[in-house]
Structures are given as structure tokens and as C-alpha cells.
Amino acid sequence: MTNMLSLRPGDRLPDFALPGLDGKLRKFVWSFGGAPVTLLVVADLTALDPTQFGDLRAACERASTTLVIVTGSEIARAAPAWKKLGAEPEQPLLLCDPKGQYLTALLAQGGAVSFGQAMGLRQRVIVLDPNQRVAATFDTRALAAATEAIGPLADSVRANGGADLLLNTAMAPVLVLPRVFEPDFCTQLMRLWAKGDHKDSGVSSRYGNVDMAKLKRTEDYMIVEPMMQKAVSDRLAYRIGPELTKVFAFDREFTFDAHVVLSYSAEGGHFFAAHRDNGAPTTADRAFAVSLNLNDDFEGGELVFPEYAGVRVSPPAGAAAVFSCALLHAVGPVTRGRRYALTTFFRQKR
Ligand SMILES: O=C(O)CCC(=O)C(=O)O
Ligand SMILES: [Fe+2]
């Protein structure tokens, strides 16, 4: 973990290991057991207000989130302070980082390069979803603000939306990752599409220069604005990149294809028939496809995976569907309204 840690909502917090009060190392990832995690980072444990700490503990319990504390205090100094706060040795979990190995980065302010703790915050609360991704950070009145917000916040990122779904068919190996793009960013991209020159693309070098007329009819806008290209790439790299390592054991260096906003309308009869994304010599280095719905006020337009029992996937706005470029897939017809999707590919660097 570096000082340049990115803690924007959706970013994945890298794992770290620190000793607890018993001096034994614990990995942060061990705190994740299916529930959101509230991480309280505090430079000096003796400076923590016992009432506020008690309130935060109670709120975390009510919200069924796991509370973890990281402090810059040494174990010998932390132990009596911990007792005073009314906590038990292991409940909640306290991790000590007197050398500031991770603390400095966890308390650093908004992307600024920090030269030690003096420039960072003294206290911060970071709420993470069950997949170790940032849901929100609280920097001012950190404990009180987190105590107030934790209930609804935890519910908004809980990973139990599929609990009623019992799969009894083959399942396409597609990773659906929520909250990759913020609602405002989705809107910006749709505006860009509306402003830009989006043509019915028949032939496209993106698809290996084959005649696409029978295969695809969509209205595409290729993002050429450097700021927007970077804004898209950063989000994909920070939010999807770590998942590729975790889920698919893909830890190669990568680059991206052009980022393209595809649009399919019901009245335009737009479609994308079954294809693979890495079939041409020019596309053979594509590893993973990203299809990210920018809106959800349409019907139809699901991703279909014919090799895997025809499973249909329709992620909510802002969520990405990520899958191997070798999988056969199609986009079913949009039957009402207009669908906008950001599509791109992770390419393996040679
Ligand atoms: O519209 C989509 O979500 C998928 C598009 C697609 O398959 C592609 O761009 O290769
Ligand atoms: Fe595709």
C-alpha cells in the first residue's frame, strides 16, 4: 500500500497485515465474512472519545457490520487505552501500526502526496462493502458522521441481492460488479454520446475489420476526449483490475482498447448477434470484455451467453459485466427505450 492509495467509492482497498494486541499478525481480509466492514483509522488511540466510540460500536452492531480499528499507537500504549474504551481484547479487532506502514496512506488526504502523518488526518472511518471495496469515507466528525450513516449505507452495499435466486442451470462465468461508475459519471457518458458523432457502425476495425453489417447494428461513440478516456480507464483499473486477479487469477499487466459507448434503441432495431471478442489476429491479445450499462430505463438488451444455457445478464446501471473474450455472447433486442453501454477490453501487455 502506498501513500497514493485511492479511497474513492468503488475502489478496492488493498490487503494489509498488522499485529493485534497479542502481537500476532492478522490480515485485514480475514475480517471479511460476508458483511460490510467499518474500518476506523485513528492515529492516537488515547485521543479517541469513549462515548463516540461506544456509539459507533453500537451502530455497527445494529447495522450488522464488522468493526475493525487500526491505530498508530504501539501495543504497550494501546492496551490500557483499549481497556478504558471498554473494549475486549479481540472484540472488536484492534490492529497496531506504530511505524505508520499503512496508517499514513489510510489517513492521507485526497490524493495529495503525504510526507508523514502531520499532513494527514488524525481519524477517518472507511466503510467497505463485503468485497473490500470502499462504500464511503468519513473525514470530518468521522465517528459521529459514520454512526449516523452506517445503517442505510451498509444496506446499500450488502451483497445479498441474489439470496432468493437458486441457479439450477449452467452459469456463465461472468463477473457482475456493482458500483464501477457513479450515477453522475454514467450521465456524463450518455451526454458525450448525445453530443458526439455516433454512427450506425457497419465496419469497425475494433472488431477486426470484418463486415459487421449482419452481425451488429448499433450507434457508437468512440471516446476521444483524453480526460474522459482517463476517467474511464482509472475506474476500470482500480475497480475491475483487482477483481481479475482475485476471480480469474489474472495478474498480467494490461492496457485498454478504445472505450466506446454503444447505444441500442428499440425503434432502430439495433442488435449485436453472437460473437467472440478475440477472434481476429488484431484482437487476439484481448483478455476480458467489459460491458457496463449506463442506464436502466429500457427493456430487453440483455447480454446472452449461448454456450452456458443461454443465461441472460442485465446488470443495473453503473455495474460492469466482465467476462473472458473467448466466450460467445450476444445482445438481445431492446424492446422498449434505448440502452447505453460502455464497452471496452482489457488487453494483455506484450
Ligand atoms: O452491448 C454490449 O453490452 C456488448 C457489446 C459487445 O459485445 C462488444 O462490444 O463486443
Ligand atoms: Fe462482444
From TrEMBL:
Q: What is any Pfam family matched here?
A: 2OG-FeII_Oxy_3
Arranged from A to Z, the UniProt key words for this protein are: Dioxygenase, Iron, Metal-binding, Oxidoreductase, Vitamin C
- Show the SMART domains listed in the entry: P4Hc (SM00702)
Stretches assigned to the Fe2OG dioxygenase domain: 255-349
Q: Which SUPFAM superfamilies match?
A: Thioredoxin-like
Instruction: Enumerate the cofactors the protein uses.
Output: L-ascorbate
Q: In which organism is this protein found?
A: Reyranella aquatilis
- According to UniProt, the name of this protein is 2OG-Fe(II) oxygenase
